[in-house]
Design a protein that fits this description.
Helix content: 25-40%
Shape: globular
Number of strands: 20
Radius of gyration: 21 Å
Structural class: alpha/beta
Largest sheet: 7 strands, mixed
């Protein structure tokens, strides 16, 4: 059942001038990790409202399988269910509740939240790109590489000022497994790697049923996000990719022997807004902005912080007010100055950590429906159609679908 009424309520309460802000204390992605641990008898923190699991038969559940379809927003789910048989069946059998993403609505920040149970204002991953002033270095958070392709000066554990949730699950007798196309996984998890969608379908049952202990399994699919970036969410190739991904999910569930004991959650970290590559804004052409940027360890301007929908501007002393005013005058965008960000809890309704305070820009820029980035240095970033990271409802509203696995298998 698609709970479109919840989406309407979220927009009424948290939307301002077409920008949708996170519902941190309620229907928010930040509360997913604690919610999915609860059926296993583990309390790790603030959960989603109880009604997200109303009518979901969790009796006898010993396993929780979280399938994360990167970038598959609630609007796209509603539209694509009419074109894909399994997605339509999932929409009917599961309780599908819309949530808001966190801010930023980006994978690097959201995945850190999912695996630590903390908000960006706590863990300090402010976007895909992070500037760490203690070492004067910019790097990409998820690949954990500098722009030159080297390891950052800080260590990987220093990326987030937060601990993995999975040792806590292990202490409660829950075995944690990740089915991912990455070489590494968080502390306390067993990795089950895959390269193709057919391998994904094989690895999921293996991971869920590897031990006799209660199991938490996280399974990650990046393909829908990649397709949206390249061609937008209205293209034939996007629709084809959605179909292939949910075919893989169906195949994975069909292979489960413990389907009656497995609660399945299908969710996304963010959606996408379709931008116009011909109109996306090249910040390298704004001389006044470039002059106002603070200088990094190499003496050059600090550019790469955040993303094209969540730009963090680290500015010279005394320049924030004028830069913000110039951006507001020229762009149809939300322009937040640092005091407002901290006052309204944009990155989380918690006391900010020292790592977050260091990495937060003096001004944060989020366009209504375009990308804004340094196009002379990274032209590919402004060539994407689908983007995310900002506050557009199509990138902020995401699905949380819950159902017992045996109810999906024909």
């Amino acid at each position: 059942m698609l709970r479109t009424d919840v989406a309407d309520d979220l927009r009424r309460e948290f939307e301002e001038d077409g920008y949708l802000f996170p519902d941190y204390d309620g229907y928010c992605f930040a509360n997913v990790p604690h919610t999915v641990a609860s059926p296993l008898g583990v309390g790790t923190g603030r959960t989603l409202p109880e009604d997200v699991l109303d009518g979901v038969d969790a009796a006898g559940v010993r396993n929780v399988l979280v399938v994360l379809v990167d970038g598959f927003g609630f609007r796209q789910w509603r539209r694509e269910r009419d074109h894909h048989r399994f997605l339509d069946r999932l929409s009917s059998a599961a309780r599908v509740t819309p949530l808001t993403s966190i801010y930023p609505s980006e994978t690097a920040a959201a995945m850190t939240t999912l695996h630590t149970g903390t908000l960006p204002a706590e863990h300090g991953v402010v976007g895909w790109n992070v500037y760490e002033p203690t070492v004067g270095e910019e790097f990409e958070a998820l690949p954990f590489r500098t722009k030159a392709g080297e390891e950052p000066t800080i260590s990987r554990p220093e990326l987030a000022e937060a601990d993995s949730l999975y040792p806590e699950l292990a202490d409660a007798g829950v075995s944690a497994h990740h089915v991912v196309p990455f070489a590494t996984t968080p502390e306390g998890t067993t990795r089950h790697g895959y390269e193709t969608r057919s391998e994904f379908a094989e690895r999921v049952p293996e991971a869920v049923e590897q031990t006799d202990a209660p199991t938490y399994c996280f399974a990650y699919l990046p393909q829908v996000d990649a397709a949206a970036h390249e061609t937008g969410t209205d293209s034939d190739s996007y629709r084809e990719t959605v179909g292939e991904v949910f075919d893989a999910v169906e195949a994975a569930l069909t292979g489960l022997d413990a389907a009656e004991e497995t609660l399945v959650v299908v969710a996304a970290d963010h959606g996408h807004v379709n931008t116009d590559p011909d109109r996306n804004v090249n910040l390298d052409r704004r001389e006044g902005l470039l002059d106002a940027l603070r200088r990094g360890g190499d003496g050059g301007p600090i550019k790469f912080s955040g993303s094209p929908r969540n730009v963090h501007l680290h500015l010279r002393d005394g320049r924030a007010e004028q830069v913000a005013a110039d951006l507001r005058a020229d762009l149809d965008a939300q322009v937040f100055e640092r005091p407002e960000i901290l006052d309204r809890g944009l990155f989380g309704d918690v006391s900010p950590s020292e790592a977050f305070r260091r990495r937060l820009g003096d001004v944060v820029l989020s366009h209504r429906n375009l990308g804004t980035w340094y196009g002379d240095e990274e032209p590919d970033e402004l060539g994407y159609v689908g983007m995310h990271g900002g506050l557009h409802p199509e990138e902020m509203l995401i699905p949380f679908a819950a159902v017992r696995a045996d109810e999906l298998i024909e």
